[in-house]
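Quick start: what a row looks like.
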Amino acid sequence: MNEMTDKYEQKNPFSVPEGYFDSLEDRIMIRLRKEERSRRARLLRTFKPFMGWAALVAVVVLVMITVLPARNEGIAETQLDADFNPTTEEILEYLAGEVDLAVLSNEILGR
């Protein structure tokens, strides 16, 4: 056992290549830059589906903004028509002036 101790005490079994620590800082910085780029790409890849959903919501909102005002105009006209409530006399006067009784009687009798 003494032989082994003597053998390994004299020489260090581990060695470092020449110039290893001289270029260590540069190699570390290069790896950090690569990792930062990949982190950015990962972040973009993570948010890409959410950006698609946001675009879809924006399109739906734009469509609603353009369609709803036209629909509201139609509702306003309908509300004006709902306020029109003619009396029976007004209806009879209108029909007397607009309807030909001979044509109406022929249609009713089926002639």
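That is the whole record. The chain is about 80% helix and 0% strand. The chain has one domain: 2-109.
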